[in-house]
Design goal:
alpha+beta; 68% helix; Helix Hairpins; two-stranded antiparallel sheet; two-stranded antiparallel ribbon; 2 helices; rod-shaped
Length: 151
């Protein structure tokens, strides 16, 4: 039994679903990239604080709109978010290690999602080509029928 070719309307609907998935995935990627930059900035701050004693300057935000002059109350210590709203005061080496693991996990997640986005983009392109071929074929068929009727 021959498989019936999907209609242009069905392919267009599939294309829209793929576009929606691509847009959603791009949003998730943007959020993960923001989280990655945040973790990287936190790691850099902890690394900088590790060797400081007394007053030092710290960035107030990633874009350096503000720089804060601060005195470390406990040099060599950092309070790090462990997840689920749990924080721990750790030595800076352990804090840096935890942040590095978070950074690696985010990078792996980003890579996986980018691969998925590439796959979806290729699928989108294939569906688009199929839709264009079908609509071109239908247009040619209609033109042929009109010529027959005109003769």
């Amino acid at each position: 039994m021959a498989q019936q070719m999907p209609s242009p309307e069905e392919i267009a609907a599939q294309l829209q679903m793929i576009r929606d998935q691509i847009a959603e995935l791009q949003g998730v990627l943007a959020q993960l990239e923001l989280r990655l930059r945040s973790v990287q900035a936190a790691k850099e701050t902890v690394e900088k604080a590790a060797g400081q004693d007394g007053e030092t300057l710290f960035p107030g935000d990633p874009e350096l709109n503000t720089i804060l002059k601060a005195r470390l109350l406990e040099p060599g210590k950092a309070i790090v978010h462990l997840g689920l709203n749990v924080y721990a005061k750790l030595d800076t080496a352990k804090a840096t290690e935890i942040l590095a693991k978070k950074e690696d996990a985010l990078k792996r997640s980003l890579e996986t999602l980018k691969q998925e986005l590439d796959k979806l983009s290729r699928t989108h392109d294939q569906y688009l080509q199929l839709l264009q071929a079908l609509t071109a074929g239908q247009a040619a068929q209609q033109a042929g029928q009109q010529q027959k009727q005109g003769s």
